[in-house]
Amino acid sequence: MRFIPLMLVRGAILATLVLATSVTHAERLKDMTSIAGVRQNQLSGYGLVVGLDGTGDQTSQTPFTVQSIIAMLQQKGVNLPPTGQLQLKNVAAVMVTTSLPAFAQPGQNIDITVSSIGNAKSLRGGTLLMTPLHGADGQVYAMAQGNVLVGGVGASAGGGGAQVQVNHLSVGKISAGATVERAVPSTLGENNQIRLELNQTDFATASRVVTAVNDQFGAGTATALDGRVIRVRTPSSSDARVSFIGLLENIDVKPAVAAAKVILNARTGSVVMNQSVTLDTCAISHGNLSVTIGADTQVSQPAPGSRGQTVVTATPTVEVKKDPGKVLLVKGGASLAEVVKAMNSIGASPQDLLAILQALKSAGSLRAELEII
């Protein structure tokens, strides 16, 4: 079988996306906020996977696997001689991880992920032995056990032939592989109130949420504590509280326009903006790049006898050239998207984009938050 290698694209790639405009649409509170205390809790545990087909840990290099096997056998009443050297190829030491959903109760089943921590080649076909899963407080909240399902394919041809591997064979999942043994205490509705927390801090949006909730349920129901947290009074009974929260989450609120933000991937040169960003007047010198921003003047002449007025509009135009010794001249009102697009068209490197955007930000011409990833 012949494999065609992936083509490597040389040069920076521009991905200028306008994610939001000045016109925003109403969103449900369920999508904009979360309720304090209603959250998942991470669990983890150390266990053993047995029944592997010779793809387990090399015990000479993973002594903790041997120690775990000896300890487990001793608990089962099997005593090994102190000089015994175990050679196990069908056992792998693993870490088991999962998230305990909010309001999970004893007896509920949850999915788990099993990951090798040794040098096992594959967990395919293995069985996870009973493993306690602990929370951050050290308490056991669930017990895990079951057959590990490893997705993907691993194949190789003998004699130094081609090898193909899709997915990581040292990581698998067990659907409904853990049983909840302990519930996390919930403080929802304590003192007949809940706290809504905005996904993004915004004082204007918080004020709009308070207004929308009070219009729906009456004055004084909601109170903003800061730009992120809104306190909401709830009914005293649990049944009425659940119904109230269900109605609360479906209230539509029009969020405020987010602050301008520009995100640059320094490795690929991708630029993402959350809205249209314009530049103030500035001048920058960078290497052999020359940027000229002019104006395309258009004149609108009214028809004779219409008593209209002649309208002259000037649309900014951008031109980028590789011309050493020139200065980047940026006039006010120019679009950052057009500047970056023009620079990318002549093959500007990601480092060039990074340096120029940082210079624009330092000079005060770029009136947006610059984030580099």
From TrEMBL:
Residues 1-26 form the signal peptide. It holds the Pfam family FlgI. Transmembrane segments: none annotated. The keyword Signal applies. It is found in: Bacterial flagellum basal body. Keywords: Bacterial flagellum, Cell projection, Cilium, Flagellum, Signal. The keyword Signal applies. Belongs to the FlgI family. The basal body constitutes a major portion of the flagellar organelle and consists of four rings (L,P,S, and M) mounted on a central rod. Assembles around the rod to form the L-ring and probably protects the motor/basal body from shearing forces during rotation. PANTHER family: FLAGELLAR P-RING PERIPLASMIC PROTEIN FLGI, FLAGELLAR P-RING PROTEIN. This is Flagellar P-ring protein. The gene is flgI.
